[in-house]
């Protein structure tokens, strides 16, 4: 009797959320900031350590009352974490009192694949030497950091993507870093300090595996300052996507664009962003009209995007004309922000095309 009463009085509460598979719980928690993820898990004993297997860790100083609280939280997460860590992302204005070297050592033992470190312009963080020994790295994003390679640097053998935004690094270290990443496919640099600008040209000789290349106006102008005899250390045999910012009406800069294309025979996607042309001070070193187009062919070029973002002069149209005449596999040419002018459209239609499939599409 007592047994029956006990059974009747015993109630088991099951709910769908508690009994969810662990991988589904992880997917749900992954949509929350890491701090909220941990706090949410504490509400349920069944979910208590579900967060500990999340492979992508993102920390932002703004979510904490102080640097000390941030440090304690990161320490706890790394200590209790179970399983692999694929991504480590941290944003902190001042890394002075942050034990980054200790964290990098922990990450190096977890086969980390992607690291993002965002510092501030005022308090640039010097990347610790152990960072350069993490051989599992595939993607690195650094903002306002200082990079000094260790004396013994064996390279990052699996690195495919390197983004440096506002970073400081010497010429020799920059060239050494890039040349010792044999699988590097994407290199992005902006607002950085690399010693002498000549380094940027020398580094080109190490980009044999690069597939995507984006060049800003400052670099195009630097190429111009090298004078008429432009030479690059190699052809970009693996380059498939090229994005260039230039003044399309400037004969000098337009010539540089064609020069780069000639050194990238396998480019399939070309993007040209027009920028306002300021005072140049340079006489035209080459005239596009004088190019021998019989010797120029962009055999693999399929897609071209040109964003004029301003008035279109005769020299700006000439760029389109030359591309249409030298790309036998060209499929589409997208032209954005052009002047809505009948003469403009009339000239576009009259241009000869090496590809019968080439289609010119105009966007507002």
From TrEMBL:
Protein name as it appears in the record: F-box/RNI-like/FBD-like domains-containing protein
Species of origin: Rhynchospora pubera
Cross-referenced InterPro entries: F-box-like_dom_sf (IPR036047), F-box_dom (IPR001810), LRR_dom_sf (IPR032675), LRR_FXL15/At3g58940/PEG3-like (IPR055411)
UniProt-listed Gene3D superfamilies: Ribonuclease Inhibitor (3.80.10.10)
All residue ranges annotated as the F-box domain in the record: 14-67
